[in-house]
């Protein structure tokens, strides 16, 4: 089920033109989730559209949305889907927080062709 959720989440982000999508395998590294998806949009509206699409796809496929944080500010939206947590940044914020470096010990996965 997690791989289905991961693929659906990745596709939802990609469908709204989320940029530089990175998937980190957090198993054994973090208790928060099995996978983190990190991506960014180039405007507040795009960031919100990506997060909205992600939520709609998750609900449509029967997955629970545990929480959403930061939607109104649209600078860093966190969508918690349980085993998968998506971090949707505004382009300007992504470099500042640099989650890829923070979680540098987590292996990156290529799910774009899965």
TrEMBL record:
Subunit relationships: Interacts with ribosomal protein uL14 (rplN).
NCBIfam families listed in its UniProt record: rsfS_iojap_ybeB (TIGR00090)
HAMAP family noted in UniProt: Iojap_RsfS
Domain of life the protein comes from: Bacteria
Protein name as catalogued: Ribosomal silencing factor RsfS
Ribonucleoprotein as UniProt keyword: no
Signal peptide feature range: none
Family to which the UniProt record says this protein belongs: Belongs to the Iojap/RsfS family.
Cellular localisation: Cytoplasm
SUPFAM superfamilies reported for this sequence: Nucleotidyltransferase (SSF81301)
Name of the gene: rsfS
A single Gene Ontology CC term: cytoplasm
Entries under Pfam families matching the protein: RsfS (PF02410)
């Amino acid at each position: 089920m997690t791989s289905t959720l991961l693929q659906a989440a990745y596709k939802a982000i990609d469908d709204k033109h989320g940029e530089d999508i990175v998937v980190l395998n957090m198993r054994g590294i973090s208790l928060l989730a099995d996978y983190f998806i990190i991506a960014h949009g180039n405007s507040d509206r795009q960031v919100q559209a990506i997060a909205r699409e992600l939520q709609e796809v998750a609900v449509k496929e029967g997955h629970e949305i545990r929480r959403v944080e930061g939607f109104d500010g649209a600078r860093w939206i966190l969508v918690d889907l349980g085993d998968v947590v998506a971090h949707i940044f505004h382009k300007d914020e992504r470099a500042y927080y640099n989650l890829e470096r923070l979680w540098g010990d987590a292996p990156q996965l290529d799910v774009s062709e899965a």
